[in-house]
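Model: Ready when you are.
Researcher: Fold this.
Model:
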Amino acid sequence: MKIFIDNWRWADVPFYLRAGKRLPKRVTDIAIHFRPAPYPLFNKMRDVRMQPNVLAMRIQPDEGISLKFDSKVPGPSVRTAPVTMMGVARSAAECMDCRSAAAVAVSRGNLGTERGRRAHRARRPEVEKAMNSVRERALAGEDISVRPQAIEQKLAELWRIDPACERGVMRAALWNVVAHTTSADLQKKASETLGRASTTVPQRTIIVRAEPDGEPELSSFISANCHPITPGKQVCSEKISIVAGGDRVDFVPPLIHSLLIPDMPVAVWWIGDLPNEHEDYVDALLAPADRLIVDSIFFDRPADLALIGRVAAKTTTSPADINWVRLEEWRSATASLFDPPQMRPRLAQIRAVRVMASVDDPRYFGQLIEALFYSTWVTTQAGQVVAEDGKVEGTRGSVEYTFRYDTIDSLRGILQVEIEFGDGSMARISRDPERCILLANVDGVTQAPESVTRSMSKGNEDLIARQLKRPEADRIFLRVLPVSVRLARRIVG
């Protein structure tokens, strides 16, 4: 419903009232959208898309206030991204006399009593002690079991309870991050990875373990990821774990939707192979997602790449691939080869590209994708056309792409790339495992590309954090994705 207030103070300011029944969660809040500045400083810059500032006041169940505004992304380029500052409301009286918020919670309800009778005063210290113990355990990283229907309520209590009125814990979140796993081992790995990633990108973490073939089950746990910032102070973000099995897996998407912090971007990290046979489940889970993060090393067939391509083409969710990010040093080194003016015309003279990589099992499609992505990137940058059958045509005729896979000690990934030109000359990029650098050889001259001095970090927490620090979709990856599906036919036959 859109209404106006007919007075001088609120003239021409629309008020929107939204309400409904049987929604995923019960919440009351007020969001104030500010008008854009008449002369925005960065509005005409290419990578800057200014969004209106939003002041949101949560009335219930978790009283608080948040301010959403644009901030410059760290780095040399000028790019902006929305940032949300959150604060949880606390009674001034509670801090003045150092009373625990648990006492307020006990006085309002029937915690520890039967049939709604008032809580006994003699039991209040015991209840406060128990609730404070829960908070200490959660902030220490321990998972606390809660009913799925009471997750938000328990999280609110978690941040209210503070018996010493200490101000050393700050609650922070820039993203909603949902990690989807299918086993206990992957769930543990996701928890550890996102716990480390939250040191640089605070987030509300929701980790799902869904086992459709398991016993019917739906349980949940809450905890916190805390990291010290100064002596005596730490930043904490929430972690929610959901375990679902059997037919209860169908309850996962709506439960996750109800746990997302409003007006905050959502990233879904899908760990493992994509379930092509359950696309409806994937679509439901991705409905609120702004970013889908996958690691294509787990993919077992080109259809998985095609599914990611459909997500990019038909939804508002932007896909990102950790396997693609691992290629950043190789792409930077290759691009630096063609930076000198005398090398730029040779980009159109490429006649053949040969990629050698070290993998565990060359029969497993996921381990071949890194070399596939690199080759596809070269085709898009050189203006080559990849046909449906995987054949590549350049501006001066066909271009031959060949792949060689071996297993060499503990090395994994691309080892060497050879680019042959029409005049018979060759450029070669190879990895030096001892010095952890890439070496380029052009016309017999070997040197380390200036743009890459050492191999970039490949820890999953670093790769995830780099994806979350990137506010917009990776346009180059979106161009590469559909072409890689066609070029994959050259690999798998």
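Researcher: Now this one.
Model:
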Amino acid sequence: MKPTVEWIKEKYILFNNQFFGNYLEMPILKTEAITANKGQILGQFSINPNKSVKAKRNNMHMFYYDYYLDKDVYVNHDNFIQIMNPSITLNTLWDAEEIYWETTLLHEMCHYRTYIDGYCPKKPHCGEFVQWADYITIASNNKYKITTYCDCYTEGRTMDDSVITKNAKNLCGIYVKFIDFGNEGNIDNRFYLVKNSFKDKLIEQLSLIFTRRNFEIIICSDPNWAKEMVATTNLTKTQRTVWTYYDTSAERTKKAIELMNNYPTEKKVVHAQTSNIVKERTMFSDIIKEVFNELAQENDVVNILPGKNLSIETPFE
């Protein structure tokens, strides 16, 4: 199913009563194509302040300056709707079973709950978010398992063909299979999703990283593999240059690797060397960097900007 605004409103009222004690005011409810994060998310909570809102750094309490009153006015439960214009949007790029839309809606309502008293979380999935997520999971007897990432609700969704084609474009799979010590199915095996343009650099780096291990590299850059892999696993997170999957026994990753058997692959065996090991974590330090840094300590206020999933738009990690 694809949700409608009417469906969202009906479920929102039900969940607000069931889990939040009717504490959450009605936000703007929308259904539209969400293309952020390569369209991977099923939903998002956003704020769009109509005033220049800031937050005290010591407690992240949001406020704005009222020129008529000539003083700072704090955002709270009573004025949150009026000042912050919150909204919840579900992604029409996806067709999913109702349970996944319900879980996504509850996920976004947890975000809303962390904001409505006027405090801006330093992290989107802060401790308060986790507390509400755990509460709903328990209160619903595990019917709704709220995670910290909305793109984890994947089992029951399908992707439009146009989105599959877009996400599979220029995508390459690289499976690193360790063969030392006669250990097949080694827990150290890993799977990488990379852009084709970065394939050769990654393979070169792998030889420098695992210098004391014998391993086989299996590469599949066939576009038909990429399309089938995306369609059946939803492993489409190509906004980064490299995505690493350390657990190759996980169902989605295992499926992506198994599909390689149906398409042409390149194979390369790399033998152990004696040089020092380079930590994998530093391999892409020049490519993958932290998005947000803590503000300098001398700054005691933070600008609260319009944003998707909240403090992701403020300069906090």
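Researcher: Key takeaway?
Model: The chain has eight helices and 15 strands.
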